[in-house]
Structures are given as C-alpha cells and as structure tokens.
Amino acid sequence: MVILVNQADEPIGTMPKIEAHEKAVLHRAFSVFVMNNKGEIMLQQRAAHKYHSPSLWTNTCCSHQRVGETNIQAGTRRLKEEMGFETEIKELFSFIYKAAFDNGLTEHELDHVMLGHYNEAPVINPEEVADWKWMLPGEIRKDIAENPQKYTAWFKIIFERFYDHLFSKTSANES
C-alpha cells in the first residue's frame, strides 16, 4: 500500500502500489542518496526481475513510506532492506514529479529526498539489487547525458535536483 497525498503532502487515503502506478495517482515516496568521504554517491543497479526499470542504475535506495512511518524511519528501513546497512540520514527537500515507464506504469510522487554518509561496502539484497558502485556527482551527470537508457526515469529527474541542491549549498557556503 502507498499513501495517497495532496500537493501539500497531506494524506488522503491509501491504495495498492501497482494500482497507484497504473492510475498515476499522487502518492508519498522517498529517495535516499548515500555519499562517502570522497564525495562519491553510492548507486545501485536494480535487480533484473523487478517489475519496472529492471537492471537500471539509480540512487542508493528509494521506496514508499508505510502508514504511521516517518520519512526518516522509512528511508532507514529501506536502506537496511536493500543495501544491508544503517546510517544516519536527514531530509533535504521534497518535490512532486511524474515519470512514465515503458510498461505503461507511471510514478506520480511527492518525493522526500534524503542524504546519509557511509564509507563501507554495502551487503546488497539480491532480491532488490543486482550491483552497486560509487560515482562522483559530475561523473553521474556526464554518464546520464551520454547513456540515459542506463538509468531509471525517476533518478534522472531526482538527480538533477539533488545535484543542484548539493552545489548551490557549496557555492553559497563559499561566498
């Protein structure tokens, strides 16, 4: 079940995840980015048997909050389930996006973007994740431009916002 929300992120009901994706109904979601001390982002490659976006690269983890769960609790839970580790995460920003998939499903999400730091290798769950790697934000941006078919639809949208958030903070701190 996903939590249906209005544009102010107020819950208005629940719906089975597949139905929400079939009907493109706005629902709450989250995306976690984990970075290391070198400034690299941990990416995951989705498992080949996933019902949408199989074998594509995306952010460290993402999913949907459960009823009664905070954004941080949801992100922490899913990070452990998919990548096999826990780390402190904080919420950076949220925004609404819509992304259609080749299989007819659509993500229409109010996405809460979160950041954590970690320097070790994950212990990936093969039911969820095929592979993982560290990449610098600039390398990711370049690779998305050159090879967009390698990345999930939502990651291409969310990454630009995350990138802008990272580097607007850096430039603001330097001035």
Looking at this protein, list some descriptive labels.
175 residues; alpha+beta; Nucleoside Triphosphate Pyrophosphohydrolase; 34% strand
Quick rundown:
With 175 residues, the protein is an alpha+beta fold.
Give the helices and strands, then pairings.
Blueprint: E1 2-5, E2 11-15, H1 17-23, E3 27-35, E4 41-46, E5 57-58, E6 61-63, H2 71-83, E7 89-100, E8 106-117, E9 129-135, H3 137-146, H4 153-174
Parallel strand pairs: 3-8
Antiparallel strand pairs: 1-2, 3-6, 4-5, 4-9, 7-8
Architecture overview:
The protein is an alpha+beta fold. It has one domain (2-174): Alpha-Beta Complex (Nucleoside Triphosphate Pyrophosphohydrolase). The protein has four helices and nine strands; from the N terminus they run ββαββββαβββαα. The protein has helices at 17-23, 71-83, 137-146, 153-174, and strands at 2-5, 11-15, 27-35, 41-46, 57-58, 61-63, 89-100, 106-117, 129-135. Strand 7 and strand 8 form a beta hairpin. The N and C termini lie far apart (45 Å).
